[in-house]
Write a structure and sequence with these properties.
335 residues; alpha/beta; D-Maltodextrin-Binding Protein, domain 2; 5-stranded mixed beta sheet; 14 helices; 10 strands; 17% strand
Length: 335
């Protein structure tokens, strides 16, 4: 054998062993396992959406074998449409939008419930001293059927004020527009979240109440997927939920880094607003199991708003088995 032929043979052997080593390394590190791409939609620039942000920024999707793309799609309705069209595979979305679609027969299931306590604050003009003072006045919501609308209705109902009869409910746009409406006197109140509540208070508005103290429960932030996709790609969704569980733990144990991530996605520069945003995420995101009673009550409410007669049982739109398996496969105790 010529010297050149021997060199080529040695080169080929080295190349084969190098490739074998690379395959072994990448399979152990999860790089090759990251080939399936999950497109995850989220619906608001809000602290309650931070679990997806943390999972992405800290590489938790990749750690669990997924290449994930998180996509901001403004509004729950638009996100649900993208999910049903197959443009996204999973959505972190407000319960109102998901429930409205389910009541219309959409092939969707809740696989996690990240936030069930409404953490909004009811911000009012200086003339409003108690909830009863809103009678005959106007309150702003971001949009009809959305979370701010639902929160406002639940609050008015609790204090026995009839929406759109005793208190006018006005749609103004997003949270910035609702804050501006209160500040200008166009309306006398609005439910606001960080950082808009802090901005309004600094500008002269006042905090009438914190909804977390009112024991008002609603599926504020859920994780939803198509039933057919769950059946076809169960392992992808298990990996997604494992990443979410790790992100929740990260939020609870890594304040400074979590605040950096929230600051990045919310583009915040106000230190007080950022602190409030972190506190909101910390105090609302908890055990992500989907509570059947919470969903059933929410189904009834959304059905009444949308004039839907037949309300399905909550059990038909919930799948907690994935979350249970994600916990146990990660070495965590079952719920």
């Amino acid at each position: 054998m010529s010297g050149f032929g021997l060199e080529m043979k040695i080169f080929k052997c080295v190349l084969v062993w190098a490739l074998a080593g690379l395959i072994l390394l990448t399979s152990r590190s999860g790089i090759f396992a990251a080939s399936p791409t999950m497109r995850l939609g989220y619906t608001a620039i809000s602290p309650t959406q931070s679990i997806a942000w943390i999972a992405q920024e800290e590489g938790l999707f990749r750690k669990n074998g997924l290449a994930a793309e998180i996509i901001y799609t403004r509004g729950g309705g638009t996100t649900i449409q993208s999910l049903l069209a197959g443009e996204q595979q999973v959505a972190q979305v407000g319960g109102a939008a998901a429930l409205s679609a389910m009541l219309q027969g959409a092939d969707l299931l809740f696989i996690a419930l990240l936030v069930r306590n409404i953490y909004y604050e009811f911000i009012v003009g200086p003339e409003i001293k108690q909830v009863a003072d809103l009678k005959g006045k106007k309150v702003a919501v971001s949009g009809f059927g959305g979370i701010s609308h639902i929160a406002t209705i639940l609050l008015l109902n609790k204090y026995q004020l009839i929406p759109n009869k005793e208190v006018a409910v006005v749609r103004v746009g997003g949270m910035p527009e609702a804050m501006a409406a209160v500040m200008s006197g166009l309306v006398q109140g609005a439910v606001l979240t960080a950082p808009f509540n802090a901005q309004a208070i600094r500008a002269g508005a006042r905090r009438l109440l914190a909804m977390k103290d009112e024991n008002i429960v609603f599926p504020l932030n859920t994780v939803v997927a198509k039933k057919t996709d769950l059946e076809k790609n169960r392992n992808h969704y298990l990996a997604t939920l494992r990443a979410f569980l790790e992100a929740i733990r990260f939020l609870k144990t890594n304040k400074n880094r979590s605040m950096e991530i929230i600051k990045k996605y919310m583009r915040m520069t106000d230190p007080l607003g950022l602190e409030l945003a972190y506190e909101e995420a910390l105090n609302t995101v908890d055990d992500p199991y989907v509570d059947e009673n919470v969903i059933q009550n929410a189904l009834q409410l959304i059905a009444s708003i949308n004039n839907v007669g037949r309300v399905p049982p909550a059990s038909s739109v919930i799948d907690n088995s994935l979350l249970h398996e994600a916990r146990t496969s990660s070495g965590r105790p079952p719920r």
